[in-house]
Predict the structure of Phenylalanine--tRNA ligase alpha subunit.
Amino acid sequence: MIERLQELHDEAMIKVAEAEDLNSLQQVRIAYLGKKGPITEVMKGMGKLSNEERPLVGAKANEVRQSLQRMIEEKEKAFEEAKVLKQLEEESIDVTLPGRPVTKGSRHPLTSVVETIEDVFIGMGFQVAEGPEVETDYYNFESLNLPKHHPARDMQDTFFVSSDLLMRTQTSPVQTRTMEKHQGKGPVKIICPGKVYRRDEDDATHSHQFMQIEGLLVDEGIRMSDLKGIFEAFVKSYFGEDREIRLRPSYFPFTEPSAELDISCAICGGSGCRTCKGTGWIEVLGSGMVHPNVLRMGGFDPEKYSGFAFGMGVERFAMLKYGIDDIRHFYTNDTRFLDQFKHE
């Protein structure tokens, strides 16, 4: 039996050496060291041996098994190393190539415009106030002189959450909430930046979501001339000293009298062009003296206090400042567009 074991050992070693991959090596392992292999068969016949031969054959069998196992493991290791080396060659990295630059983010152009406008009004003594975007019907409409079924509500096609809750159509509710906090005592001098929502069809000049900045000043003796003075200072600070303004009569349910603010066209200097539609002027915001009903709903006595309010679209100001022709550019997250404002 010892000679048979040696023959099996030599035969198996040749098979191991000839194995070309892990699969064929595994077949050699099963063939010689498996439960049905010849070495196992030899071991099963040890019961027929004499007491003197049994330990000698057992020792030889263990020696053969350990030798084959060791040889197979070494060959497996060699195959694994070869596989790794091949993979490294196929996935090698050329360290001489230049690295990819890390792109830095920047402020969104709308954020830059809001901060610039805030700085101008803060410099004139205004404070920044904020409020909820999901608003009640009372604050969004009724407190602003728009009772239920008022026809002017059709001017603002609204996203309703429930019969009483809605996505605010303007930042004016912040004005009423701030007046209530003052409990009828002036002055109130705030600007209210934030997102608003209306059921508009998205196109080059309209969006279902956009940004507004509204302003409110309530105190004793406030007049329309104060509003014009604020606009003069703001427009020259934001657009340049050469820009002129004009107030044009208009209608808003929460102000009386009401006016649109126009600024002289920067393209033609007021002579008329395609940008200003030949008028020499560009409309930028709506304004007016706060309606007595709005003052009263905010807790102020309209016999003692007066005030003015205004509201501007942030996207419109950004489009005028940067010469952008489509409002949708602000919301598509196209880095080719946003990269133009990295230095703003």
